[in-house]
Specification:
single chain; about 450 residues; alpha/beta; UDP-n-acetylglucosamine1-carboxyvinyl-transferase, Chain; 28 strands
Length: about 450
């Protein structure tokens, strides 16, 4: 099977779509349901490579997880009013757990695939479980830094080590009793924060985590909904050890990060008019909307409602339909470090939007992007230049000259799903043919992305 695709300029995008289920929430729903005593049902779970890595890991740890046909997918397949039906692999999960102390020693090494969320959150969970585990992943994951999670876990008393002086996977964990700590995070990271919160469930005392900037808060919301007492004071989060989680049912909303590609595509292609339905609009995730509106984009949120997490502490996860129309010009903007956590996954598609803005867009404070699935700063600068964009790579970001007349080129996705999808959008406004190489990476988060994109161009 070919691992590339050829795309050409599109006249317009028209129709309605439903994005895949939220990847971050799908991961966390499996983790927390696997630790919550009893039977939990996770509806509209994302069946993609990254989230399946989490599900398979928990099954290796003895958790009983059954997949069932997704009601959401069945309803979508019967729809008649959309020009692009979503046939991604959504599934419902039924998870039976014996509680936070019910995990079992795995018989083999746990393969986390390409998923940084899986390996980092697992490191936190396994640090408090009394057995040996070894975690690894694909070549990309084995080059991603793990010291940022290993260091605080060791402060909690974890017996954990990794390759190359504890820098990279594989990671070996021999779980034992943990102690609570106060930890000031040097870099805002939802994955590290979540790993420490989960480890905090196994610790003696109250674990306190301080963030430099607010990162996505799905874990805090969901811990509360599963019955944990968690206290939030500004950028400080506290959780007491020894708490049991309670099984529950939950619905996973649509993924904003997946919707972002279609939002930008609609804005850049004249005469486009699309609606993306059921998108999660958690304010710690939707920084891209704020930035695009500051650039002059017309984006309308309708049918705003909540997906219930049965949480007494937090507002439920907010959801909306997003309506986007093309044709209005964008203006350049300067994006600062404080804005980055709320749009960290949208950096690649934001770069594509910047190529069409009037002026020079500068993004700073994004050095974290150098250690994602690829070095996203370097990759975006390099590949955009192939399409005729003036882009300057900065140590912590990028500078992009707008009003670019894009030309088709051969693009290397660098094995990064978000880069592959971002340049697929760029191809729709470029003169000539663009070839995207390494398109199989898209399966990490958005199966059927290209089919849906094609459906919107008809």
């Amino acid at each position: 099977m070919s691992d590339s695709i050829e795309l050409r300029k599109a006249k317009r995008l028209k129709g309605e779509i439903i994005p895949p289920p939220d990847k971050s929430i799908s991961h966390r729903a499996v983790f927390l349901s696997s630790l919550a005593k009893g039977k939990s049902i996770v509806r509209n779970f994302l069946r993609a490579e990254d989230t399946m890595s989490t599900m398979n890991a928990m099954k290796m740890l003895g958790v009983d997880i059954e997949q069932q046909s997704s009601r959401a997918a069945e309803q979508q397949s019967k729809g008649k009013d959309t020009t692009a039906l979503l046939h991604y692999c959504s599934t419902d999960l039924v998870i039976h757990s014996n509680g936070i102390h019910g995990l079992q020693e795995p018989e083999d090494v746990i393969d986390c695939g390409n998923s940084g969320t899986t390996i980092r959150l697992l490191s936190g969970v396994l640090s408090g479980n009394p057995f040996l585990s070894v975690l690894t992943g694909d070549s990309s994951l084995r080059s991603r830094p793990m010291g940022r999670v290993i260091t605080p876990l060791r402060q909690m008393g974890a017996d954990i080590m990794a390759r190359d002086n504890d820098r990279y996977p594989p990671i070996a964990v021999r779980g034992r009793k943990l102690k609570a700590i106060k930890y000031d995070m040097p870099v805002a990271s939802a994955q590290v924060k979540s790993a420490l919160l989960l480890a905090g469930l196994y610790a003696d005392g109250e674990t306190e985590i301080s963030e430099p900037i607010k990162s996505r808060d799905h874990t805090e919301r969901m811990l509360s909904s599963y019955g944990a007492r968690i206290d939030i004071e500004g950028l400080k989060i506290k959780i007491k050890g020894g708490q049991e989680l309670k099984a529950k049912d939950m619905d996973v909303p649509g993924d904003f990060s997946s919707a972002a590609f279609f939002i930008v595509a609609a804005l850049l292609i004249p005469d486009s008019d699309i609606t993306i339905k059921g998108v999660g609009i958690n304010p710690t995730r939707t920084g891209l909307l704020d930035v695009l509106k500051s650039m002059g984009a017309e984006i309308e949120l309708t049918n705003i409602r909540d997906v219930s997490l049965n949480s007494s502490l937090f507002a439920d996860e907010p959801v909306a339909d997003i309506h986007c129309k093309g044709g209005k010009g964008l203006k350049a903007i300067n994006i600062t470090k404080e804005q980055i956590p709320a749009l960290i996954d949208e950096f690649p598609i934001l770069c594509i939007a910047a190529t069409q803005a009037d002026g020079v867009t500068t993004i700073r404070g994004a050095e974290e992007l150098r250690v994602k699935e690829s070095d996203r700063i370097k990759a975006m600068a390099t590949e955009m230049r192939k399409m005729g964009v003036e882009a300057e790579e900065l140590s912590d970001g990028i500078s992009i000259k707008g009003n670019a007349n894009l030309k088709g080129a051969s693009i290397n996705s660098c094995g990064d799903h978000r880069i592959a999808m971002a340049f697929s959008v760029a191809a729709l406004i470029a003169k000539g043919t663009t070839t995207i190489k390494g398109t199989s990476a898209v399966n990490i988060s958005f199966p059927k992305f290209f089919e849906i994109l094609k459906g919107l161009t008809k």
